[in-house]
Task: structure prediction
Amino acid sequence: RDKAINILEVFIFLPVVMKIVEYRIPLPLTCAEYRIGQLYAVSKSSNQETNGDTGVEVLVNEPYEKEDSKGQYTHKIYHLGSKIPGWLAALAPASALKIEEKAWNGFPHIRTELTNPFMGARFTYTVETMHLDNDAGSEENILKMSKSELKQRVVKHIDIVDPVPESEDPTKFKSEKTNRGPLQKGWEKTADPLMCAYKIVTVDFRYFGLQNKVENLILSYQDTIFAKFHQQVFCWLDEWYGMTIEDIREYEAKLSEEMNSKIEKTEQKD
Result:
């Protein structure tokens, strides 16, 4: 493994073009509802995914305030463990199997930055998100991208009724609290309420010979992650509907303790 890393280190970085993908994800919710449902689903799904050598460790979850925005700041570590392909794990030391996430949730705008200590500036991954009520994904430049960025951008539409392996099924879910669902193809044409989450993902993996392979791998995972997550937000509607932001903060704190405890027990075994 060390020899493979040394070989990679001697490559000279060449001028490369990063990948930019914009996801448009309509949902039968209001933005105010989605704000609660998103936070609930992040905590619940993160806790479900934390097991063995994989999972989420929450370092910081606190309010922030900047000149142009304010909201909630989070700092997390994703322990990738056995979730990455063997060919990639063979090239990477243990420090490369962790991803740091910093997010500024100033809803309706959210900025998320992912980094890797081993890769440093050679790996950048950002997600800029904007949420819009009464919209199914018709805005063409909601986050004011430059002309050069628009030329690079690939737009992908995600329909939460399309099946995803090992996920919730909006075509079978009926909300008892809101009477929404089950959803069928074309649901967004008559949905009330309706909103759209616009997510612009920018990924740049600067290792000569591996760039395209790793970037495509990351984005293939991202397609599934976004689809599965938003299916969960909708299908868990009756679990979070009616919760306040204070309720959510208590829920986040409780599950953060559970996740951190799981990570600590795994590290102690190692």
